[in-house]
Inverse folding.
């Protein structure tokens, strides 16, 4: 399941809509990125996202904070961005460090600017099929499944991982599309027996090659949402690809769709805040 080509189409559409927003309002959509510290992977991710913004006609504002930044200072920084009318979307690059209350920092993002879908308001919207922004990786995964015409209705989906910004929201999005969802985690007993029964398996545990080929039902759809050092996913691609009907590679699968979703939702946020109506809005996580 190649994520590069569909992501490119989403970004091209976002660029067209960003141009429409600019023409109608005189303002280009603006994404603010906040980075605490200088973790090499995080620095690379932020740089890549800002480069994609530029290509899509989205302005980016980068806020770099020292690793010594505390929760209160980070919350104040994000709150200021939330109240800045020239900023339409906010991305807090995570992780932020063990000394920071990450949830408090996420909750400082105004819901209308939560284009990364990390607040409890966004999770509630995903869970109840309301207007809001999807968590970007889960939203990108759903968009990728749609691109490949994967029918989720009635299918058994095993989500391996229950993080607040990936596993849990993805389960809600799949459930909204009438899949039967099983959440798996570190306390799950006999995990392979569950994944072998699943029509769709999503790996989001942050452990390299955690799921093996004999953990997969023949013909299943396998989504690898992991990224580990050395461009290694959470799925052993070589063995799993021999059994899966469809499978995402790492890199080139989920990652491009995550960034594409972020940019598309930033344009939607700008359009909503500025009161214009560009075509091809992106509320694809609605339950209906």
């Amino acid at each position: 399941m190649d994520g590069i080509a569909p992501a490119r189409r989403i970004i091209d559409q976002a660029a067209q809509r960003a141009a429409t927003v600019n023409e109608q309002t005189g303002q280009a959509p603006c994404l603010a990125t906040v980075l605490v510290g200088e973790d090499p992977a995080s620095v690379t991710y932020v740089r890549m996202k800002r480069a994609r913004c530029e290509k899509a006609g989205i302005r980016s504002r980068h806020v770099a904070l020292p690793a010594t930044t505390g929760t209160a200072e980070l919350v104040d920084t994000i709150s200021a961005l939330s109240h800045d009318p020239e900023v339409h979307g906010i991305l807090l690059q995570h992780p932020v460090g063990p000394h920071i209350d990450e949830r408090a920092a996420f909750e400082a993002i105004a819901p209308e600017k939560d284009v990364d879908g990390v607040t409890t308001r966004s999770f509630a919207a995903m869970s109840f099929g309301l207007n809001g922004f999807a968590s970007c990786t889960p939203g990108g995964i759903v968009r990728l499944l749609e691109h490949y015409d994967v029918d989720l209705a009635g299918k058994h989906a095993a989500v391996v991982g229950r993080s607040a910004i990936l596993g849990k929201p993805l389960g809600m999005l799949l459930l909204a599309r009438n899949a039967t969802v099983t959440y798996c985690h570190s306390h799950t007993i006999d995990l392979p027996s569950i994944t072998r029964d699943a029509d769709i398996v999503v790996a989001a545990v942050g452990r390299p090659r955690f799921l093996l080929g004999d953990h997969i039902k023949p013909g299943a759809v396998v989504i690898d949402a992991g990224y580990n050092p050395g461009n290694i996913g959470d799925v052993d691609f070589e063995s799993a690809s021999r059994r899966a009907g469809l499978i995402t590679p790492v890199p080139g699968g989920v990652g491009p769709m995550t960034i594409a979703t972020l940019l598309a939702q930033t344009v939607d946020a700008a359009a909503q805040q500025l009161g214009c109506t560009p075509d091809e809005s992106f509320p694809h996580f609605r339950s209906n």
About this structure: Residues 281-288 have pLDDT under 50 and may be disordered. The longest strand covers residues 30-36. DSSP finds ten helices and eight strands in the chain. Residues 136-254 form a domain with the Rossmann fold fold (CATH 3.40.50.720).
